[in-house]
């Protein structure tokens, strides 16, 4: 067995097989490779998880032995896949892999061969070889995406009360609900953002246009942000951040209400740094 990149015994394949059968939806851990499925079923799959190709023939007892071992090792897990290539019925696929001896086993990752061996192997050595492939190469790949798995997201029932309060225009009641949730989960970023958003809504809806120049500046920025024009709000505040500390504070507050990677946020933060330094 030629395997210069791996060391065996790194993962318990038996534990992989104990995963819930529901996780197998849309994924077959052992397939028969044909010309029709080799591109998507083998090479594209190897971008996600290691793929072990067994190129053999029913005429070879060693091929049949390896096939049974790989069927057993791959059953009930999602960490790797085995593709069986019958060199008699699909010689084109076997030739494309440059096979000289049957059986030959080739491990693929990222669409490229990463290890191989020829001939049959003892069961324990085969398990170690696969285990090393999974543990050392698997983490470098994307992993499977289970499109059939339902999204399970725990929704705090208290959020219904917050929604009802917001619909009624009761911003204080909504804030109280968010404070209650944050008392139990202080690091909940979504709730922190929701609370901050409610604070802006309350400021905009809770008063008319202020007479004080600075208060008016802040109020107008809030109104522009709530109206869906955050760039206008940022522009307004950026004109005053150097001379008015409250403009800087309000700008930083509004920036947290958008995603950090939002181009508008990045541009505003860049301009803020230039204005201050």
Description:
By secondary structure, the chain is of the alpha/beta class. The protein folds into 2 domains: 13-140, Glutaredoxin (3-Layer(aba) Sandwich); 158-276, no CATH class. It contains 12 helices and 5 strands. A hairpin with a 2-residue loop joins β4 (104-109) and β5 (112-118). α8 crosses α9, α9 runs parallel beside α11 and α10 runs antiparallel to α11. The longest helix has 17 residues, at 189-205. It is elongated and about 90 Å long. 27% of the residues are buried. Residues 2-25 have low confidence and may be disordered.
Corresponding CATH architecture of the largest domain? 3-Layer(aba) Sandwich
CATH homologous superfamily name of the largest domain? Glutaredoxin
Order of helices and strands: HEHEHEHEEHHHHHHHH
By CATH, the topology of the largest domain is: Glutaredoxin
Structural class: alpha/beta
Fraction in helix: 40-55%
Number of strands: 5
Chart the SSEs and their pairings.
Layout: H1 13-16, E1 30-32, H2 38-44, E2 51-56, H3 61-74, E3 81-86, H4 91-96, E4 104-109, E5 112-118, H5 123-136, H6 158-167, H7 171-184, H8 189-205, H9 213-226, H10 230-238, H11 245-255, H12 263-276
Parallel strand pairs: 1-3, 2-3
Antiparallel strand pairs: 2-4, 4-5
Helix pairs in contact: 6-7, 7-8, 8-9, 9-10, 9-11, 10-11, 10-12
């Amino acid at each position: 067995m030629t395997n210069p990149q791996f060391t065996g015994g790194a993962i318990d394949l038996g534990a992989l097989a104990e995963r819930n059968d529901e996780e197998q939806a849309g994924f077959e851990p052992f397939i028969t490779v044909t010309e029709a499925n080799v591109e998507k079923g083998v090479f594209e799959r190897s971008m996600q998880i290691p793929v072990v190709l067994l190129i053999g023939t029913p005429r070879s007892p060693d091929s049949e032995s390896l096939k049974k071992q790989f069927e057993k090792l791959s059953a009930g897990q999602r960490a790797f896949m085995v593709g069986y290539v019958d060199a008699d019925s699909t010689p084109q696929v076997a030739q494309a892999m440059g096979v000289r001896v049957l059986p030959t086993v080739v491990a693929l990752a990222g669409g490229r061969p990463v290890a191989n061996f020829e001939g049959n192997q003892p069961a324990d050595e085969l398990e170690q070889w696969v285990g090393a492939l999974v543990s050392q190469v698997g983490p470098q790949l994307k992993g499977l995406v289970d499109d059939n798995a339902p999204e399970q997201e725990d929704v705090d029932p208290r959020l219904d009360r917050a929604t009802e309060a917001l619909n009624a225009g009761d911003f204080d009641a909504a804030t109280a609900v968010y404070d209650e949730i944050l008392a139990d989960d202080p690091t909940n970023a979504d709730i922190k953002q929701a609370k901050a958003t409610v604070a802006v809504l309350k400021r905009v809806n809770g008063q008319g246009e202020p007479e004080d120049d600075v208060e008016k500046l802040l109020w107008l920025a809030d109104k522009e942000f709530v109206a869906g024009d955050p760039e206008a709000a940022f522009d307004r505040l950026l004109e005053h951040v150097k001379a008015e500390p409250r403009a800087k504070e309000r700008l930083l507050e509004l920036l947290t209400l958008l995603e950090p990677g939002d181009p508008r946020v990045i541009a505003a933060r860049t301009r803020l740094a230039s204005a201050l330094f």
